[in-house]
Design brief:
single chain, 112 residues, alpha+beta, eight-stranded mixed sheet, 8 strands, 45% strand, globular
């Protein structure tokens, strides 16, 4: 596994409404992970709906890697900027970055 997009996060001001929309419009399954986050199922790619205070402003692609520190070095060397330093989350560790064209993205490594 090397640096593949495998997750997408949708920020929402109301995760219940957004999740209900995805379920009704596309038949996607929803798994609630508390009051601020729902996971999406059977959407073609894993994803989630984020209502937390720290949510990003726009839909964000999330890249899975085997080497988080190496990915961070490559992002910086290629001209990206870190927007959120590495942190632990349920399922692994990740950081956010902005690529030179302005898109915010994240890179994560899964927990063992």
């Amino acid at each position: 596994m090397t640096d593949k997009i495998d997750y997408v996060e949708f920020p929402s001001s109301n995760r219940q409404t957004t999740s209900a929309f995805f379920r009704a419009a596309f038949g996607w399954g929803i798994t609630s992970y508390g009051p601020d986050y729902d996971g999406l199922e059977n959407a073609g790619i894993d994803g989630g709906v984020d209502q937390s205070e720290g949510k990003v402003a726009a839909t964000m692609a999330v890249i899975r890697t085997d080497d988080l520190d190496g990915a961070e070095r490559r992002v910086l060397a290629a001209g990206g900027s870190i927007t959120r330093a590495q942190y632990d989350f349920p399922g692994g560790r990740r950081f956010h970055f902005r690529e030179p064209g302005g898109n915010e993205m994240a890179v994560y490594v899964a927990s063992e």
